């Protein structure tokens, strides 16, 4: 039985990944799959669980939690381990896309958004890691963003939170590698989700949650360290990271 814990289970990418895993492991003759789904929207959480059961998931437990309530992380993880008897894959898939102009003018908003996208994710990883380490196996997969690789004036608050998670992932990966636990960092580019639909994005660079999920689930199964999705973003970011600072600061990105 494949046992999967998803934090931010109602996000578009998380739901698409869960469906792909259900298709792979929940089909007749498959090893079976059980989920522990965590999110802050009770209605959408219940709907997501019901959808996965209808598609063939053997179990789909739900747990309501606002991830910024970091003191509740341990209780939630206790419930997940008790329900599934161990975890094979942890997917951290929640986040917000803040308005940079608002963050520029309101420090409280900036810190709140950094807590959602950065601090709470690191706190969760720090709480999950010893549990995976103790069981001696498992994958911790974390969705960051290509935005964390360069501080662009249009979204540097969001990018800085993702950059913090990226650096934490790299160090944690090296630490847990020796214990049989793998850490995968997922770096999406533009994805057509409710979080981005208000933005004017270049159509050729926008992917769907389903296509992203295909790359993500395959990358996790192959124990990739860093998963760009779509893959062409690896090349795009190689170019962007190579732009000299004296030029980059003059660009409108």
Any chance you could write out the topology, listing elements then pairs?
Elements: E1 2-7, H1 12-25, E2 33-39, H2 42-55, E3 59-64, H3 73-84, E4 89-92, H4 100-105, H5 107-135, E5 138-143, H6 156-177, E6 181-188, E7 190-191, E8 206-207, H7 209-221, E9 226-229, H8 233-241, H9 245-248
Parallel strand pairs: 1-2, 1-4, 2-3, 4-5, 5-6, 6-9, 7-8
Task: Describe the model.
The protein has nine helices and nine strands. It has helices at about 10-25, 40-55, 75-85, 100-105, 105-135, 155-175, 210-220, 235-240, 245-250; strands at about 1-5, 35-40, 60-65, 90, 140-145, 180-190, 190, 205, 225-230. The protein has a seven-stranded parallel beta sheet, with helices on both faces. Strands 7-8 form a two-stranded parallel sheet. The longest helix has 29 residues, at about 105-135.
């Amino acid at each position: 039985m494949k046992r999967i814990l998803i934090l931010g289970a109602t996000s578009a990418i998380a739901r698409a990944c869960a469906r792909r895993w259900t298709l792979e492991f929940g089909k007749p003759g498959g090893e079976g799959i059980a989920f522990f789904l965590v999110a802050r929207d009770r209605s959408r959480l219940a709907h997501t669980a019901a959808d996965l059961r209808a598609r063939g998931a053997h179990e789909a437990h739900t747990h309501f939690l606002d991830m910024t309530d970091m003191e509740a992380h341990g209780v939630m993880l206790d419930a997940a381990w008790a329900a599934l008897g161990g975890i094979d894959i942890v997917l951290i898939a929640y986040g917000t896309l803040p308005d940079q102009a608002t963050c520029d003018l309101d420090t409280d908003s900036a810190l709140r958004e950094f807590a959602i996208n950065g601090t709470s994710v690191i706190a969760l990883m720090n709480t999950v890691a010893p549990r995976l380490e103790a069981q001696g196996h498992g994958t911790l997969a974390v969705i960051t963003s290509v935005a964390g690789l360069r501080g662009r004036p249009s979204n540097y608050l969001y990018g800085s939170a993702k950059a913090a998670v990226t650096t934490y992932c790299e160090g944690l990966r090296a630490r847990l590698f020796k214990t049989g636990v793998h850490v995968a960092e997922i770096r999406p580019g533009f994805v057509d989700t409710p979080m981005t639909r208000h933005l004017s994005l270049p159509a050729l660079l926008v992917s769907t949650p389903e296509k992203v999920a295909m790359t993500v689930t395959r990358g996790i199964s192959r124990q990739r360290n860093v998963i760009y999705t779509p893959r062409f973003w690896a090349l795009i970011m190689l170019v962007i990271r190579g732009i000299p600072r004296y030029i980059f600061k003059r660009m409108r990105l």
